[in-house]
Amino acid sequence: MRTYDFSPLYRSAIGFDRLAQFFDDSQRTESSYPPYNIELVNEDKYRITMAVAGFDRSEIEIVTEGDTLKITGRKAREETPRNFLHRGIASRDFEHSFQLAEHVHIVGAKLDNGLLNIELAREIPEALKPRKILIDGVGENVQKLVA
Question: Keyword annotations for this protein (predicted)?
């Protein structure tokens, strides 16, 4: 794996330290268990689908803190040990973190047939959306720019 040195960015750019830290963090190897997809549903809607076969709703926790989405699975320990002849369905604990862009938030989550689907949306506040200003116009003639 190739590594990059972002220290020059820290020395010469102000306010981009989070971006450089994001690149540093993304280079670390992370477990691929459980497998997941990140899907662009449409322009401002996303879906994370995670294969969590064998996990109950009560064993999965979804938390957002700031710009981080954290999904944690803690498998309840069985009271009676089982004697498997073959064990192909993993049941180990997991934790995945995802960095969310500005104005992206969780719309909902559901667990169906062993797949955890988390719906996300980007909703830019009205005050931050582009506006078209009419020349020689007055306040009520300010129009929202439609993309």
Answer: Stress response
Tell me the β-bridge partners of 109: 118
Q: What is the dihedral of CA 102, 107, 108, 113, to 10 degrees?
A: -80
CA distance 89 to 53: 8
Contacts for 22-27: CB closer than 8 Å, 24+ residues apart? 22/99, 25/99, 27/1, 27/3
Strands 60-65 and 68-73: what pairing? antiparallel
Distance CA 45, CA 82 (A): 42
Question: Rounded to two decimals, what is the model's pTM?
Answer: 0.68
Residues forming CATH 2.60.40.790 domain(s) in the chain: 31-78+86-144
Classified as helix, coil or strand, 48 is strand
What is the C-alpha to C-alpha distance for residues 38 and 46, in angstroms, rounded to an integer?
7
Q: What is the pLDDT of residues 68-110, one digit of tens each?
A: 999 999 988 878 888 889 988 878 899 999 999 888 999 999 9
- CATH code at 31-78+86-144: 2.60.40.790
